[in-house]
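Entry type: protein chain
Record version: 2
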Amino acid sequence: MQSKQLTVQAYLAELPEERQEAMTNLRNVIVENLPAGFEEVMNGMPSYVVPLSTFPDGYHCTADTPLPFLSFASQKNFVALYHFGMYVDQELMKWFVAEYPKHVSTKLDIGKSCVRFKKIDQLPFELIGQLAAKRTVRSMGRKL
């Protein structure tokens, strides 16, 4: 769901009560494993970006938009995890696809950079933490 909230804490607080704990745990595992240099922002959903102070070229052709890295959202029927690193790095995508069945018994539902988790009680926190740790701010700027 797109949110008009200005902080991640406000975003989490507006979620249905049955999703708040899992989504808070998801945020915590991302923050605990994210390499230094990324910045947490609200961009309709909690997002982690390469700040413009680090990568002033910005995203695509909009120099005033920070380079996206990772976002998550509570959608109506699933939790979405967006990881721009998997979109630009096929080796990282292959790693994630191979590791996924070691953590979750449900079928992988993945697009180019979005992983959809339909069962909130089966979020693979350890795997998501490992994924968050695999790209640095420097590696995001180099791959583009």
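Comment: The chain is about 40% helix and 20% strand.
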